[in-house]
Design brief:
about 0% helix, about 110 residues, 7-stranded mixed beta sheet, 4-stranded antiparallel beta sheet, 11 strands, single chain, mainly beta
Length: about 110
């Protein structure tokens, strides 16, 4: 049974930082492409960042130079370090691999 469990969301002021974590089980994590998506109210879900099994990464243009995706294969965990957060980053952030999704974690950027 595949499980993806996100954590680390919360309320942060503009310019602040958060680190999201996603703990995975039921997959061969080290061989899996891991994604972070987000969905803001009234908007479609969009890909934020992707990390491949070898460690290479891809980012959406709107988060380049602000967000960093990383993985710890020993802990079956993928991270999303988010810096210089903006109000438009407010969304539910989801961890995903293949067609499996986590439950999401809310990130709210507001003063």
């Amino acid at each position: 049974q595949v499980q993806l469990v996100e954590s680390g969301g919360g309320l942060v002021q503009p310019g602040g930082s958060l680190r999201l974590s996603c703990s995975a089980s039921g997959i061969i994590f080290s061989m899996s492409i891991m994604d972070w998506y987000r969905q803001a109210p009234g908007k479609q879900r969009e890909l934020v960042a992707r990390i491949f099994s070898g460690g290479s990464t891809d980012y959406a243009n709107f988060v380049k130079d602000r967000f960093t995706i990383a993985r710890d294969n020993a802990k079956n965990t993928v991270f999303l370090q988010m810096n210089n957060l903006k109000p438009e980053d407010t969304a539910i952030y989801y961890c995903a691999t293949g067609h499996f999704w986590g439950q999401g974690t809310q990130v709210t950027v507001s003063s």
